[in-house]
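Q: Is it fine to ask for two folds in a single conversation?
A: Yes, each is treated on its own. Send the first.
Q: Here.
A: Result:
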Amino acid sequence: MFKRSDEALIKQALKGSKSAWEGLVKRYESGIYNYAYRMVNHPDDAMDLMQDIFIAVFRNLSSFRGDSPFKGWLFKIAHYRCIEYYRKKKPLQSIDDTPEQEDESEESCPEYDLTQGQENKALHLAMQRLPFNQKLMVEMKFFQHFTFEDIANQLGISTNTAKSRLYSALDKLKDYLEVEDVAA
């Protein structure tokens, strides 16, 4: 069975095809949920964010020009929704200064694969300690597989800034994980 392209699904969805829209959602829902979960560290908030993201995509689908891949456009919307989440949650606190959040138990979100296993759990906890912009870089580069150019275009920053933020994040992650190893 052949897989329809994003562009074909978008065209059909814009013509009112419910199955085409559902196809787009199914294709990206786990990636969007996992992205939201890693960014906000709470399964219910991640689910709410995922729904908000897809509502925004649905409402704005006709404005997608196709200049870049749909996935990039979708994750740009997801990025802005996550920023809005932080602004609503902590209106007087910078998104770069968000405190470490408590870890959710694995039972609270069984479909979330990242928290399974000790190494993945340690990485997840370490990522929650990163400032928002650095966490975003790790998410986009390693979990969503965007290039530095894609990241720079989506965030309106230079490629060098994207690299710098990622390498700073990786240095912090390394330090956090080494401390975890020593403590274990």
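Q: Second one now.
A: Result:
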Amino acid sequence: MNAPVSIDSDYRTAAPTPADLTITVRDERFNRGTNPRRWWAGEPFGTAWHNALSATFPRGEAFFIEAVKAHREGAPPKLDAEIRAFVKQEINHTREHIAFNRLAEDAGYDIKAIDARVAELLALTKDRPAIANLAVTMALEHYTAMMAAEFLANPAHFKDADPEVRDMWRWHSAEEIEHKGVAFDTWNHATRDWKPSKRWQVRSLVMLTVTARFFKNRWTDSLALLEQDGITGWKAKWGLFKYLTATPGIVRRIFPAWLAYFKPGFHPWDHDDRALIKLYEGDFEDAVMPAE
């Protein structure tokens, strides 16, 4: 007979981030001279989904940076260095998604409503405890890492996309995988005096809340962008649903990784997928700069 799982005993107090992990800042620039409208293979649903995602990144990544930095004090030297590198990577991501969002606007898409909604949601976090913002950041960083791994592991996602847009998403994905444990390790550092069961309960509840809001808002945003493309009603909803769950099916494909987050003792580096970074890091060799 199997013994019941104990959350406290199952929890690992030492984060299994690889000891030899190096977070590399790749100072790349994209989308300064192109202007594709339906950049995702001329297809509107993937274009709408990724445009909606990108519209949230400038404010969202600034929020991530502040949430992690708020808990840097007293961090072990290795984690402190990783936080500094994380911040530099995220600053570059923000810059490139601002450029990408400008590209979308120049192509005729109005993304101001998405940005305004993100601003309103972030305004609600101002009076929350800093640890709550870190918990949200940790959950959303898991989302970016899941999607990044899928994008790099399955080239079908971007094989027919505009080449420069594709390169931006691949670059961003490589760095999201690389720093996927930073927010989680910062959380472990910040909650080191909590009982393991409380840590598990809080991060699990936050992930459920974040998941509901993430898909509700991105669905709404994507449909709004599809309407700007003249696609409305059941056609827009069915096309977006098929894109997310069937072909290429990003939501279906990341579900096992999402479910793993609820495992007692989970850590993002339980699955070491640095090989995905190595597949592409040669493309960015000339842009590598020291993290410090």
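Q: Anything structural to flag on that second result?
A: Two points. The mean pLDDT is 88. The chain has one domain: 34-289.
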